[in-house]
Amino acid sequence: MGCLKGVVEVILYVENMQEMVEFYRDAMGLAVKNPAAATDFRKEEWVVFDTGACSLCLHSGGKRRLGPDSPAFVFRVLDIGVARGELTERGVPMGERRRVAPDSWFCDGEDPEGNRFSIEYMGKR
Q1: What is the pLDDT of residues 83-104, one digit of tens each?
Q2: Could you tell me which of 74, 73, 69, 59 has the C-alpha nearest to residue 14?
Q3: Residue 42 belongs to domain spanning
């Protein structure tokens, strides 16, 4: 076993902190871990969302330098159809579901600044 013990955070550089916090908190349903008491995020430089073992961190100062090879991140879901439906109802642009293996389904989405993400359902493991 190597010296690495797992991923603890993913940092996403953003241009508009308030809009991005509202997207990940309100549309995606993630809880703000830090700063937990804040309501106005326009002047925040660092916002952390609780996503389980690995935190999603927004860092101010992004410049939207995105391309087809930009990193994307994946959220695990219990039911791909239900999750896609909930996100679509909240205004999150989501692609169609696609099967990538017998028990594996993915669906791609995009946040307001064009960062790509996916939701995944992995059946029996």
Answers
A1: 999 999 999 999 999 998 888 9
A2: 59
A3: 8-61
